[in-house]
Structure prediction request, 300 residues.
Amino acid sequence: MTISMKSLGRLAVMRAVILTLLVIIPSIVYAQIFYKVEGKGMKSPSYIFGTHHLAPLSVLDDIPEVTEAFSESETVVGEIEMSDMAASALVLQKYMMAPSDSTLMDIYGKDEFDRLNKEFKKWSGGLDLTFFNQFKPMVASATVGASMVAENLPGVTPGEQLDTYFQTVGVQAGKRVAALETIEEQSEFLFNSVSIADQGKAFKEQLDNPEKSMDEARMLNECYFSHDIDRLLGATVAESENPEFFETILYKRNSNWLERLPAILEDGSAFIAVGALHLAGPRGVISGLRNMGYEVTPIR
Prediction:
C-alpha cells in the first residue's frame, strides 16, 4: 500500500493528537495515587498507579515503590495499547474527521475563521488552521494545548508520558501488555462525547483566553504533586459547562473497566497504569474494586 505525503502528514498530526488529547482532558488525582490490590482468590497481588499526563518521568525518582512493583509484575495494563500509534492513527481518522457540513469554516464563517487563524498560528509555530478545516475542533484544540503546555510547564513533553513509558519498558522487559479498552472505544469517548458545536465553542475560548487554559494546566500539576483532590475535583465539576462529558469520559469508562479488571487480576500480577482521575471518588476504580470485594490498600 502506498501512502502519500499528504497522508503521512495527517498520520503525524493524528499521532500527536492522540497523545495531546490526553493532556487536555483533565486528569484529577485521588488523595493517594498508588495502590496494592489483593483478595478474591488472586494468585498474587497487583498494583494500580494513577498517572498524570503533565507529569515528567522524573516523578518516579521519588516513588521507588512504584518501580519495585512494576518490576515484580507480569503484565502491564494501560487504558489502550500504545505500541503502534501509526496503526492507531488510521483507526482514529474516522473519529477525527468532521461531517462535510461541519468543517471549521462552516462553524465559524470566513471572517471569524480568519481571525482565529491568526491566533492559532501564534501557538502552532505558524501552522495554518486551514489544514485542520475538515477535522473536528477538538483536534485543532489539542495542537494548541500542546504548545501551551510546552511553554508554561518546562520539562514536560506531551509525547513523553508515564502511560507510554510503562508499556514501552514493559515490552522491553518481556512483560505482557493488556488494555482496558480498544482504540475505537477510546476514540468514541474522546471525539463523540461532545457535540461539534460545543467543541467549536471551547476551541474559540481557548484561543481567545489562553491564560485560562495555561492556568488550568498549572493547577493540574500542582494538584497532582500535592494530592489535593478536594480543590481540584470540586473546581472541575463546578466549572464544567458539560457534565454529560464527564459522565461519559469518566464514569462510563470506569464502569467498563471494572467489568474487565477481574479477568486481568486473576491472570497473575499486573501493574495497572491509568489516569489518576479514574481512581477518584465513589464512582472511581478504587471504590469500585472495594465494592466488588477486593482488598485495595494505598501504598504511601
Q: What stands out?
A: Residues 243-265 form the longest helix (23 residues). The chain has twelve helices and six strands. The beta strands are 34-38, 46-51, 75-78, 176-179, 270-275, 295-298.
